[in-house]
Amino acid sequence: MKVFFNQLFDYNFYCNKKLIELCNGLQEVPENSVKLFSHTLNAHHIWNARILGKKSAYDVWQIHDIKDWGDIHYENQRSSFEITTNADDFDKRIDYETTEGRLFTNTLQDILFHIINHSTHHRAQISTDLRNNDIEPIPMDYIHYKR
Q1: pLDDT at residue 147 in the model
Q2: How many structural domains is the chain composed of?
Q3: Is 96 within the bounds of a domain?
Q4: What are phi and psi of 120, to 5 degrees?
Q5: CB within 8 A of 54, min separation 6: which ones?
Q6: What's the pLDDT tens digit per position in 2-57?
Q7: 115-147 residues labelled b (16+ CB within 10 A) or e (exposed)
Q8: What is the extent of the structural domain holding 9?
Q9: Do the Cβ atoms of 88 and 96 come closer than 8 Å?
Q10: 20 is a domain residue
């Protein structure tokens, strides 16, 4: 399970890094793309914090300057690799409170998979937003990464 999640987080890191590089090279990044990618970074951070029993440093929809995306992304990745490396039970139940104040419990593996899936979902929305703004998105399918 560790190898599987490390591969997925490596894929996630690769895609986010490519997207950050693309956006850093643009004259202007569409506002919705900035909002969605900031949210993606925030959510990853928030889930890591929940797993580690820490307080989140970011709000769910907090907007970040594009120049800060790389550092936030790197820290999210480092933290996720620390979580997967130190995990001895991926079926371990994690209690957490949502940003709306509701209490839930999910397994570590479900939360880790959610982080990846959530990121993929929003990268797809960003790709659509870029295309709608006449900016060619980069291919980020898993199979492209594995080639």
Answers
A1: 87
A2: 1
A3: no
A4: -60, -45
A5: none
A6: 999 999 999 999 999 999 999 999 999 999 999 999 999 999 999 999 999 999 99
A7: bbebbbebbebbbebbeeeebebeebeeeeeee
A8: 2-89+112-146
A9: no
A10: yes
